[in-house]
Amino acid sequence: MLLPPLGLYVHIPWCVRKCPYCDFNSHTAAKELPESEYIDALLRDFANESSHLGERPISSLFIGGGTPSLFSAAALNTLLSGLQHHCRFSETIEITLEANPGTTEQGRFAAYRDIGINRLSIGVQSFDDLKLQLLGRIHSADQAQHAFYQARAAGFDRINLDLMFGLPGQSSSEAIADLDRAIALQPDHISWYQLTIEPNTEFYSRPPRLPEDDNLWAMQQQGQQRLADAGFVQYETSAYATAGQQSRHNLNYWRFGDFIGIGAGAHGKLSTRHGEILRNWKTRVPAQYLARTDTFSAGQRSLENTELPLEFMMNALRLRDGVERSLFSERTGLSLESIAKPLQQAIAMGLMEDNQRLQPTERGRLFLNDLLEIFLP
Would you say 144 and 124 are in contact if contact means Cβ atoms under 8 Å apart? Predict the structure, then answer.
């Protein structure tokens, strides 16, 4: 089986405080972060993973969290340098850092740029100060705007803005006003998605009052049109980019590529030359992760052939244009004939296109969960 491109995800699990909607593996930081100790642990973790690399270079690297911008440029430079002792970065590697506007200061973006980070993802979420307070964010709308200007001044020409709609008490006009402020900054990429209430969050135990479905639909329709008019192409369920500015790291996920995950609670997916596809995950609690001296793994399993169609489609069908049909066999080792029956059913139901791609129709994008159920084992 031809091995797919390989990305690397680095998880930094600390935040200034935990947001009430967040279900990621994030933890409120102590006054002093164990910065150097955690970088050392990450490099030991990656050294253990390096045997799986073979000759493949790392094509993309995403540093997420938590709030990675709590870490200094010096610490992240140690990380990047150390990683390259065990692997080769591709010449065109995309290195993304997630940043919170409330944890950036004058000069920090320039330092990040100097060490080789070439893409930022800024967690704005809203440009309405009241909504930001309801979301538990530590920054203001003005700080978010200032962070963007700082990043541009530091030389970042690839910036994503994370923005949510369907916030507590939000009207359609307020959601579009948020989006207009984001568009006015002229970023290259906007991740615009609906707030959902997830288990194990504060919002789940004490649900806020969210907009009615009709209002949510209006927000989505108006917002998508606003983004299209501004030159942003929706290439994935909640991702919009100007020409050539799609997230390469996330595209690798959606095209069922491989990725190594290091850090507390990180997940990975690796294909072997023997045709296996492995899922693995790391120790979740930061203190336990830091205490590990040998393996950082909390588990690993091989995906069964019966699971692969759904695993593949859960990613590929998030893409507006889908993927080439040949990619299914390349990435799963299964023949297209093995999914002929569910594929024909999806086409007959008007959920997938009848062409040379595995591509959802507009109806399929609207009812994606129904479409994916067709590929259940």
Answer: yes
Location of structure tokens 């200061």: 105
Does any domain span residue 280?
no
Same domain assignment for residues 172 and 87: yes
Task: Provide the token pair at 362.
Answer: 């507009």
Residue 91 sits in the same domain as residue 164: yes
Query: In the chain, which ranges are E strands?
Result: 6-12, 14-15, 27-28, 58-65, 89-99, 119-125, 159-165, 189-194, 233-236, 239-241, 258-262, 267-271, 277-282, 297-302, 323-324, 357-358
Give pLDDT tens digits for 303-347: 999 999 999 999 999 999 999 999 999 999 999 999 999 999 999
User: Is 356 in the same domain as 233?
Assistant: no
Report the distance separating Cα 257 and Cα 93, nearest Å.
15
User: Measured at the alpha carbon of residue 345, what is the angle toward residues 344 and 347, in degrees to the nearest 5?
Assistant: 65
Angle, nearest 10°, between helix axes 213-229 and 172-184? 20
144 CB contacts (<8 Å, ≥6 apart)? 101, 122, 124, 127
Specify whether 195 is located in the same domain as 331.
Answer: no
Q: Which CATH number is 110's domain given?
A: 3.20.20.70
Q: Radius of gyration (Cα) for the chain, nearest Å?
A: 21
The domain spanning residue 345 has which CATH number? 1.10.10
pTM for the predicted model, two decimal places: 0.96
What is the domain count for the chain?
A: 2
* Structural domain boundaries enclosing 350: 308-373
- Other Cβ atoms less than 10 A from the Cβ of 297: the count is 15
Q: What would the pLDDT profile of 126-150 be if each residue is shown by its tens digit?
A: 999 999 999 999 999 999 999 999 9
